[in-house]
Amino acid sequence: MEDNDDFPFSFGNVSDDEESDGIFCQPKVEAQPTASTPVKAAQEPYYPQIDQDGWFHNSAKSVQETMLQEKTGATKIKMRADHYYMLGQFKEAYDLAHEYCRIIALNEINLIDRGNGGIARPDEGHTTSPSNGGDVLKVTDSKEMQEMIIRCAIKLGRMSEAADLADGLVALEPGTVFLKAKVYSAVGRFDDAAHILVDYQKTRSSNYAVWRSLGETILTSIQDTVTTPPSPFTPDSDSVTFVKATTALLALLRARHLMRCSLWSSVSYAQQRYDREMSILCKNIASLEHRCDIVRPYIATADIDDLSMQAQFESKIITPLRKILESWNDSIASSLTTSTTTETTATTQKILLPEVVDFVVSAWDPQVISSSTTPNQC
What we know:
By secondary structure, the protein is mainly α. It is 53% helix and 0% strand. It is elongated and about 90 Å long.
């Protein structure tokens, strides 16, 4: 048998001879790259549109043509509507936003005729495929422009239309929540406004602005219904107004407490707004405390003051509210087994939604009536 001293493995296409230049194989010779100068096509100078004052107005096309044929068409229409709104031209902003939403809605159901700029109808035989590569509308979200329509409708005095449009908005962001609450309050739908604020507050319980809006919404409903001279509210004299006044007071106290606990006042540029909103809160709280027969003792000791206030709130507000809630629940439960539900439902809706009152009462904490007025001190 002939001896074979070759290395038993092969690496690459070279010999396995030990005297090769590499360890197992010959080193690779890398090809030297050759420099090539790319050929640049002749291009026109680029001028950013943002450098042109009012660039979003420079178009002779219709709204639909701008949105379909231009890459930044949808952005142009949005900025144009925002600009009109800032200038106080609410009718122009309303029309633009309305047309924007109409095109988005038609595009979602493939009724946009991209060939002649009209509206495609199935019975007319129009094709719904883009006529060219540029006529493709990629924007599908019209929520911002829906909110713009609502804001313009409020400015134009079209409150019923604004409320109908607000019903279709999905409240997932604070701005949308506050807008819907504002619209509902403006048309007298205070229960709906309070309900949407409470629903949002269940997920963001530390947001002072929601508590403040809730209290102000309920307070506005009192001012719209109470025409008699100011006098203390009691459960026996006026249970409807008592529930509203005490619920509004508890919500505003919670808002003030959250403001004091925050670091907001430590920011210099926010101090002016903080002082302004705190002043309004304290004014409304003092007014409601007087109407609810809450008397602050003239004692220098803060601890004694807090204990006295806590006792008054427990006896004059919290306990009566809990009893009223129990009676509501009993009335609602009994109405489910009888046929006379109209009167009970109307009474409950007139007072306030039970879940709103229950949420505010359940969040009661004696800390919110602390006499401390020092920011960041709870």
